[in-house]
Queue: 3 jobs
Job 1
Amino acid sequence: HNLGHMKQPDNPIWIKIRQYNSRMLVKLMQELESVPEGSGTMMDNTLTIGSGRGEIFGAWKGLGVEQQGHNLGHMKQPDNPIWIKIRQYNSQMLVRIMEALDAVPEGSGTMMDHTLIVYTSNNADYQHTSGKNWPVMLLGNFDGAFKTGCFTQLDGKRPLNALYVTLLRAAGKKCDRFNMSEQLAKKFDNGTGPIKELLA
């Protein structure tokens, strides 16, 4: 949080962070490229892609949008042509990723068959959200671990942390809570363990 409030251009701390992130991304891409076709699954490899800080809060100037991401977050979003343009672009890029994964043979299927893409908002229903309504789209089924082709609406109190527990359980990690103490869980989570409605 404190880093985010620092001046970023030419800041040696941010230069060091970005150089490290770039090296790790290149390293991961090299590892992915080195895996022979049909040599097994890629379930141990996780690639997280965020919008980054960009011009302080991110920007979509390539789409003809001049406003920065932070200002966009404070705009009314339903039926907003700017947000429609951004989301259409994001969706197109998402489809390209899925098509690329589906074109790579892996094990008994394709790389997409063994992948789960978690696509969500960084601040849910509105800027400075309370987190009460947090839409998430799961694409793929992680080698059959997740239900597909359905819409699931959860009633009650299951925080976003419960989704992370679900992902970890699907990956073989035994845990009942993620980044939440027992005291906090009693206050904010009326369940424990994974979100069973999402698992196959």
Job 2
Amino acid sequence: MTLKFLGPTPEDRLPKIVEILKKVAESQKTFSVIFSGTGFFPSTKNPKIFWAGVEDTSGKLHSMVQQIEKELETAGFQKENRIYVPHLTVAKIRSPETGVTRQKNNTMQSSKMLHSLELDMKRDFGSSEVRELILYQSQPTPDGSSYNALIRIPLKQVSTPASP
């Protein structure tokens, strides 16, 4: 689940990014999100991304995203102008003919697949605990992007009361 996409970033800016993420992680306790529903970006007519929705019932995810956004903007990074829509990217849809992300040329086979996925758009997939922030580096390749975790920063653990 992407909280903030930075785009091409000079290596000398990484220490500041890590410092910001550590600051945010220290102020955030672990929390749960629910995966529910599916959809396509930008639309079902021109699908490029198949996603599962993320419900933030506690509001902690949105709070964390706002804090990251604010801290990074203060450090000179571009502010995101779009509203944050939490989602988990399940697949990037590519054209079977060219291997590149699909434009408007749906084949019969991919149309059937998309239709079957649309039928499941309201399904619940369970929940997951958010326990850490991970800074990833993405490397575009001809076969799609590869992702390398540069650093993992744990959130504060929620303490459970001791049993009597």
Job 3
Amino acid sequence: MSDTHEASRRGDEQADGTQRPISEAFRQACVEGEVADDLQPTLWALHLRGRGDPDDPEVIASLLADHSHWRLYLQSRAGDEEAAAIFRDHWTHRARGFFRARFSAEDAEDLTGVFFERVHRLIGDDFAWSMPFAVYLQTMLLNLARDHVGRLVKRRERETSLDAEESSTTAERVAIDAPTPEQQLLRDERSDAMRRAIWALPAGDRCLLFAVLLEERSPEEVGEELGLSRNAIYQRLHRAREKLKKSLEKEGLS
């Protein structure tokens, strides 16, 4: 099915091919969510690019819940200490949990600090909304983890070449000797195809799979954060897994 046909089927476009005007339900949700008037068209366009039914209240609520994270971030940048504490507490929990699932506790703390430094350095008041805000932050976590895996592998290669394996007794060395899933993927002969399959997924699907499969968070927890019902999050997770399966099949993997 073509993108144009899919958009028409969901009702994203009108008969003349122009974008569907903002629905009253979406506009009302924006008012309740305190979305600035000039941002509403941008969020509407992002909303229409999603895979869900644009008229589904749960899909609308998911995007507005994401916008609330953005508002907290803006308020924290403006000096609101309460908003800054809420935003930092939430994303510290997310970042630590993500990094500790694959790296040492010390590395996890360091990477969490780098994550916040990168957030405040790269995200200003003019976020482009090419994807949901939380998805963008999750993508930053993934990129930091991927880069750190690369550093660990290079460090191991250097230490091996210097024949220093037996003399190294530090906790860091132990952590390297016990490869994480990501390191094992990098060593596996199929890793390139696997990475292509995962990173080819839409950002929302990719981050949902990482949250449930790698961060080992429950679908219910992720759904609550996104403002989705139990049925809605399981349906979205099922669709994401089906996309990954098809992507892997194209790469010749089962």
